[in-house]
Specification:
6 helices, about 170 residues, mainly alpha
Length: about 170
C-alpha cells in the first residue's frame, strides 16, 4: 500500500477543478456528466423503427448453470447481482427450481420392470380385432348367400319363382 504524499485539501482542490459540480453531490455530478443525460428525442424524419421485442429463451444448460451459480451465492445481494447480470427474474429462478425438483423426483421414482409398453399397442390390438371380426362376417355372408342360392334352386324345382332377395313373387 502506497501513501499519497499530497494532503487531502490539495486533492479536493484538484478534483474541484477537474469536476466543477462534484461539490454538489454524486447524484448531481452524474446528472451533468457527459453521456449521462437522456438522449434528445429525434425529429420526425430521423425516427427509427424499433424492432419488436422478442421473448428470451434459455436452454436447459443455461438454466442449470444459472441455478448452480445461484445456489453458490451466500452473501446478501449476490443473487440480485447474478440475476441482473444474467437478465433473469426471481420468478424464473423459482420456476426453474421447481422444474429441477420435479425432474429429480421423477428420476428417483421406481421404474416398472420388464419390456416397455409399445405406445401403438392398443391401436394394433384394435386393428387386429376389427380384422378378425371382418373375416368372420365375410364367412357368414358367404354361407348366407349359399343358402339363398340353394333356396332359389329348390323353389325353381317346385315351380315357385323367387326374386333376387329370395322372396316369392
Amino acid at each position: 500500500m502506497t501513501i499519497n504524499p499530497q494532503p487531502k485539501a490539495a486533492m479536493d482542490a484538484a478534483n474541484s477543478l477537474l469536476y466543477p459540480t462534484a461539490s454538489q453531490g454524486a447524484r448531481r455530478a452524474t446528472e451533468d456528466a457527459v453521456g449521462s443525460a437522456a438522449p434528445a428525442k429525434p425529429s420526425g424524419s430521423d425516427m427509427e423503427v424499433v424492432p419488436r421485442a422478442r421473448r428470451r429463451h434459455f436452454s436447459n444448460a443455461d438454466k442449470r448453470r444459472i441455478l448452480e451459480a445461484a445456489d453458490r451465492c451466500t452473501k446478501p445481494g449476490e443473487i440480485g447481482a447474478l440475476m441482473r447480470r444474467e437478465g433473469v427474474y426471481s420468478s424464473s429462478l423459482s420456476t426453474w427450481r421447481r422444474q429441477r425438483e420435479a425432474a429429480d423426483l421423477a428420476a428417483l421414482a421406481p421404474q416398472k420392470r420388464g419390456p416397455k409398453v409399445d405406445a401403438n399397442r392398443a391401436e394394433v390390438l384394435h386393428i387386429a380385432q376389427l380384422t378378425r371380426d371382418n373375416d368372420r362376417l365375410k364367412s357368414r355372408l358367404d354361407k348366407a348367400l349359399l343358402v339363398i342360392e340353394v333356396q332359389k334352386k329348390v323353389a325353381a324345382l317346385l315351380g315357385h319363382r323367387l326374386d333376387d332377395n329370395g322372396e316369392s313373387t
